[in-house]
Amino acid sequence: MKVAFVPKTHQFFSVGKDRKLKQWDADNFEHIQTLEGHHKEVWCVDISGSGDFVATSSHDKSIRVWERTDEPLVLEDERETARELQYEQSLVASQETTIPGENAENEAESAGKKSMETVRAAERIMEAIEVYREDKVKQDEYEEARKVDKTAPPPDQHVILSTLKMSASDYVLDVVKKVRPSELEESLLVLPFHYICDILILLNEWLLNKQSVELCCKCTFFLLRVHHNQIVANKVLVNVIESLNKTTREVVKEVKDVIGFNLAALKFLQLDQQDTNESFFKDFTGKVKDVKRKKRAVLKAAASG
């Protein structure tokens, strides 16, 4: 490890085995920024007389020169980035999540891991569900008001829903669809159980409307496997689970019928093509050569003329 002070200041740079160049403020004993670029231990650091250039040499047989720029450095942003990185590393290093019903010895583990992306995705899903709850309360109050006064005005829609011009359930589905498939299960695993109840209700609604059937089935099976004990013990979800069971079977059967029909049609087309000995994609190589030959003949005629 080595340190070098910036001339005529109380700031200095340090290097070491962590492969990073770090800038410090000796007056306040604060870390200012971290610069990365070397692939192995950094042994030497030196600063120019003006303080505009910093040179480092590493065990990876490289010398790097760092130049001061006019871009402003916001310490709070640097600290926030460092905190996020530290938190993400702690998530990855934490104990692996155990899913009830899964045997780690006999089954493959989930490909996803907790990270800042999965946490952010879970937060976006929770925010979307809060919008859905708020809209549902307004709709229930409107229905009650309609029973008393049929001229009651409809409630104002949430600003997000009015901007996107979609219903609350469609908005939650849109947020779930934007989560990466590799991060979906970990994002759902982060959600508290009281959000899972709303998601199960929404999954039933989406399946009834035949929206994103594959995604809904994936989420349904995962949530039922993970939260089986809590769902079974919750009397409020009994009707939801029964309806979800019936709806899922019907929708999946319909999708299977469509896939089977399409496969049968493709096989019919294949047999018909084999009988007629015709190809869907004909070879146009000869035609292209003829076109190029005619173009060359026209160019030669124009050049000779």
Could you please describe the fold and organization of this structure?
The protein is 57% helix and 13% strand. With 305 residues, it is an alpha+beta fold. The strands form two sheets. It has a four-stranded antiparallel beta sheet with strand order 1-2-3-4. Strands 5-6-7 form a three-stranded antiparallel beta sheet, with no helix packed on it. Strand 3 (20-25) and strand 4 (30-36) form a beta hairpin.
Relevant terms:
10 helices, alpha+beta, three-stranded antiparallel beta sheet, four-stranded antiparallel beta sheet, 7 strands, extended, 305 residues
Short summary:
The protein is of the alpha+beta class. Helix content is about 55%, strand content about 15%. The protein has helices at about 75-95, 115-150, 160-165, 170-175, 180-190, 195-210, 215-225, 230-235, 240-275, 285-305, and strands at about 1-5, 10-15, 20-25, 30-35, 40-45, 55-60, 65.
Q: Helix- and strand-based class?
A: alpha+beta
What percent of the residues sit in helical stretches (DSSP H or I)?
55-70%
- Morphology: extended
Q: On the 0-100 scale, what is the average pLDDT? A: 83
Helix count, DSSP H or I runs of 4 or more residues: 10
Termini separation comes to 79 Å
The major beta sheet can be summarized as: 4 strands, antiparallel
Order of helices and strands: EEEEEEEHHHHHHHHHH
Radius of gyration, rounded? 32 Å
Order of strands in the sheet with most strands = 1-2-3-4
Counted beta strands: 7
Weakly predicted, low-confidence segments:
none
Strand percent estimate:
5-15%
